[in-house]
Amino acid sequence: MTQTQPQAVEPCAVDLTVSDLPLPTSAEVDQDLFTTVIEPSEDSASDNTTAEENSSGFAGFGFSDALLKTLDEKGYKEPSPIQKAAFPELMLGRDLVGQAQTGTGKTAAFALPLLERLEGRSTQPRVLVLAPTRELAMQVADSFKAYAAGHPHLNVLAIYGGSDFRSQIHALKRGVDVVVGTPGRVMDHMRQGTLNTSGLRSLVLDEADEMLRMGFIDDVEWILDQLPEERQVVLFSATMPNEIRRLSKRYLSEPAEITIKTKDREARRIRQRSITLQNAHKLEALNRVLEAVTGEGVIIFARTKAITLTVAESLEAAGHDVAVLNGDVPQNQRERTVDRLRKGTVNILVATDVAARGLDVDRIGLVINYDMPFDSEAYVHRIGRTGRAGRTGEAILFITPRERRFVGNLERAVGQAIEPMEIPSNAEINESRLTRLRIRLGEAASAESNDETALLQELIQRVGQENELSMEQLAAAALKLAVGDQPLLVQGDESWLKTPHRADRRDDRRDPRGRDRRRGDRDSRPPEDNMMRYRVEVGYRDRVKPGNLVGAIANESGLQGRMIGRIQIFDNHSLVDLPKGMPDDVYNALRRLKVMNRELQISQAS
Ligand code: AMP
Predict the structure, then answer these.
(1) Which spans in 242-375 are helix H?
(2) Is 369 a pocket residue for ligand 1 (Cβ < 6 Å)?
(3) Which of 38, 70, 77, 80 to mutate to test the pocket of ligand 1 (most atoms within 8 A of CB)?
(4) Nearest CA to ligand 1 atom 16
(5) Residue 218 counted as domain residue
(6) How far is the CA of 421 from the centre of ligand 1 (A)?
(7) What per-residue confidence (pLDDT) applies to 390?
């Protein structure tokens, strides 16, 4: 290996606000954002490297020619910000804590330097990576294998639960340099003595917060306690809960710290929208969204296994090719599913959060949150399945009217507004269908001709002559044949689409005027400045509805309906916000006013 030594750098805590991948070209890079970080490698590049090496953004970190070649072949032009910050530290063997999500290039950030520091051969594993899920373990192992292409003697092995123990033992016996595994299975091998960690030089904890969330933290600590004193520990986590900070303090020694705040720019690459709808309309709405919002590669997130199946069945019935990823799907099938999605042989995946953790498929163009995620972290993770590897993505969130109040939390977590959208109408779907057909026709017409093309042309000419038809008539007939029996345009009933609007309007009653006329809303917000809250002695037991109160009060007081504010109905009474300064005579009239056959007995609410 020819290696240029990286310059020694001072321990640093780097806090970056940077974009996620796509990795910016040097022209696009907002230099101010990370000059502090890349300075060391830039210096070393100008000091130690040739002009030719400088043409690669990866030169100057001390990487071997073989690795530079591999990166070049993979089309990596520039290191991502987290890579720029991490490479110099890890090449020096320092411990490192990195706060970064998937999609930032964090795998290469640790894999490249750790591989490069593996000199000579050894019979014992020298790098161990712990990952929360089998999928992530496999992905990380695959990345290591790809990056080690220039060093064919290096062996990488993924070990995880659910796959054959004995074949893992055989592979470990044959000699492995890098082991990537889930904590439970790694611990099992260590306990059995089949994974010898005495020669270990580096340990990586990938997605440490996920390992914590999934209850692996004790296993992780047990593993850390068994490792040699002299070792490098690298910890990556999307969030930094206290427990992870504690772990890092206990097991890492003077680590470099890198925080990648992907929030703003990452989110901006993903267009986020929400549809408010009734639960009962979700399946139909989903079908409509899939028709109107054309996305290459779609992941639909559902809350439970049962819902994934219902959704998949409905989509299959509508003619879609769908795969399901949930906890019941056996491991080997999961791998096949992800592979099919990656290759595009299946375009839609319906998944639960756990099953889709860490899923890294570049071609996902659309994420649909069929059910609201459990928390904002899950939302960030879900939408992060799209907009990967430099692409833009779309995320659409289904929310029932009652869930609307949680949207603010999600918006805060991503630092971006989630725009409301409507369920696509017949007209939008039809437009989208025609556009797709036009594109397919254009592509088919401009595809290279072959023997069959000549035959088809002959056939068309013959049918045209026999039936005296124009080319347009023939082409339209051929297209109809291609479209098949399904009607080209949807014309079904779309009156139900109005329901979500009603839901919206109802919710809007919480708006600036602060009205809310829904049952049981016991919000204790005080009335607006210009309003006073009154109590009336009529409630649910009288079957009163907000409309009854508004109508009666407006008629009696001469107030316009819109001047009547928030109404809260309880079992035996209701609260009504009315403009301050009500004249005495109106007040007295309202006291005796009967609504649902009961006197309001209006009084100022305490
Ligand atoms: P990760 O954050 O590790 O999940 O990586 C996200 C994706 O970016 C993966 O598909 C990587 O192959 C790709 N990637 C990582 N580093 C680079 C780079 N410097 N240039 C281009 N693509 C990269």
Answers:
(1) 242-251, 263-269, 282-292, 305-317, 331-343
(2) no
(3) 80
(4) 105
(5) yes
(6) 32
(7) 62
179: enclosing H helix or E strand: strand 178-181
Burial tier of 567 (Cβ tally within 10 Å: 0-12, 13-18, 19+): buried
- Same domain as 257, residue 281: no
CATH number of the domain encompassing residue 554: 3.30.70.330
Ligand 1 proximity of 118 Cβ (cutoff 6 Å) = no
Backbone angles phi, psi at 547, to 5 degrees: -60, -40
Distance 571 CA to ligand 1 centre (A): 58
User: Is 202's C-beta closer than 6 angstroms to any atom of ligand 1?
Assistant: no
91 C-beta neighbours (distance < 10 Å), count: 22
Tell me which DSSP letter residue 177 carries.
Answer: S
The whole domain housing 559 covers 519-604
**Residue 103 CA, closest ligand 1 atom number:** 2
Q: Say if residue 530 is exposed, middle or buried (CB neighbours under 10 Å; 0-12, 13-18, 19+).
A: exposed
Do 145 and 53 sit in the same domain of this protein? yes
d(CA 419, CA 270): 12
For residue 76, the ligand 1 atom closest to its alpha carbon is 20
pTM of the model: 0.47
Helices (H) and strands (E) in the chain, counts: 23, 21
* Angle between helix 584-592 and 546-557 (nearest 10): 140
Q: Alpha-carbon distance 420 to 544, whole Å?
A: 32
Judge whether 79 and 69 are in contact, CB under 8 Å: no
Are 523 and 584 found together in one domain? yes
Let me know whether 215 and 311 are in one domain: no
Helices (H), 318-425: 331-343, 376-383, 407-414
Q: How far is the CA of 105 from the centre of ligand 1 (A)?
A: 4
pLDDT (0 to 100) of residue 268: 52
* Structure-token pair, residue 44: 């070393």
Domain's final residue, options 245, 264, 283:
264
Q: Cα of 599 to ligand 1 centre, how many Å? A: 70
Looking at the chain, how many residues does it have?
606
User: Which pLDDT belongs to residue 70?
Assistant: 95
Query: Which one-letter amino acid corresponds to residue 125?
Result: P
Average pLDDT along the chain, 606 residues, taken 10 residues at a time: 39 39 29 24 34 63 94 92 94 93 86 92 92 89 95 92 86 95 94 95 93 84 95 90 90 92 55 90 93 86 93 90 89 87 92 81 90 87 79 89 85 80 90 86 83 88 92 90 81 67 37 37 67 89 81 76 80 87 83 84 88
Q: At which residue do the structure tokens 């907009």 appear?
A: 387
Ligand 1 within 6 A of 106 CB?
Answer: yes
175/191 Cα distance (integer angstroms)? 18
Distance between Cα 546 and ligand 1 center (Å): 56
CATH for 323 = 3.40.50.300
* Centre of ligand 1 from the C-alpha of residue 390, in Å: 9
Say how far apart CA 482 and CA 406 lie, in whole Å. 45
- Cα 198–chain centre separation: 38
Rounded Cα distance between 186 and 159, Å, is: 7
Cα–Cα distances (Å) from 397 to 136, 162, 306, 516, 571, in that order, read 25, 33, 19, 24, 35
Site to probe by mutation for ligand 1, drawn from 21, 41, 110, 342 as the one with most ligand atoms within 8 Å of Cβ, is 21
